[in-house]
Amino acid sequence: MSHSILDIIGNTPLVISKVVNTNPNVKLLFKLEGNNPGGSVKDRAAFNMIKGGLERGDFDTNSKLIEATSGNTGIALAMIAGIYGLDIELVMPENSTKERVQTMRAYGAKVTLTPADVGIEGARDYAELKVKEEGYVMINQFSNDDNWKAHYKSTGPEIWKDTQGEITHFVSSMGTTGTIMGTSTYLKEKNSNIQIVGVQPADEAKIPGIRKWPEEYLPKIFNPKKVDTVMEVTEEEARDMAKRLAKEEGIFAGMSSGGAAAAAVKLAQSLEKGVIVSIVCDRGDRYLSSDLFD
Predict the structure, then answer these.
(1) Model's pTM, two decimal places?
(2) Which of 60, 85, 167, 279 is the right S-S partner for 172, CB 3.0 to 4.6 Å?
(3) Which residues contact 270 (CB under 8 A, 6 or more apart)?
(4) Segment 109-128, tens digit of pLDDT
(5) Which of 200, 255, 254 lies closest to 232, judged by CA?
(6) For 246-261, what is each residue's pLDDT tens digit?
(7) Quick one: angle between helices 42-56 and 72-84, nearest 10?
């Protein structure tokens, strides 16, 4: 059977932890979002945001699209924009890994690098300026409801179905917060007792893909009422768990996935029983030029 590449976004596997979870009364499951065609959970949101924008007439093939990204969303947008024949510029800090930049360019996107010292906030400011002064159209993952709705339509239902409704806790790193917002909305409708756990970096920790946003940059799609607990992880915990996932579980993923898994393992140790699903948001191969796996 032949599929469009877009048809194979989603329906990613759940695998059980055999090593890092040591509580025999708790089942810890990892949802492998790196199995999406663009290599991350962001394929879901990017597809929904582009499809929704085209259907509403927010932009078309004559528009100049722009988006600030720390990486995975940019790769997904580049892939899907290319399929639809859309012109897109992606803006990211200059300290982003080479693999990310090269992948976006391979898909046909223009990539602009902003100074590392102003971070993703600086990239967002640059994109806003291009919208105001040069007529660009921003996808705006931070305030675009199609971001979280992608997970309401796909990630949440998949987890509910694949755990036969037995899930008790959902763990996700928080960046744009689209994954946790949409999945929480769906799972809470099914069973309001399911606990939603958001993962943030501890103070001073730099973990690509996880943010503790300053108030003025807080994603507009974020609703704190949809998160029951916020757990903080250190950079060291996220790094160590990313390495352990690869070495002990055969799951090759990035640092934000390591952060979520570290929080999920701590959570598992604190429970008498339960079924935890933790999002593994991407693949480790886009971090090979960094020092993550040194």
Answers:
(1) 0.95
(2) 279
(3) none
(4) 999 999 999 988 899 999 99
(5) 200
(6) 999 999 999 999 999 9
(7) 40
Query: For residues 124 and 175, what is the distance between their CA atoms, to the nearest angstrom?
Result: 14
Structure token pair of residue 18:
């055999």
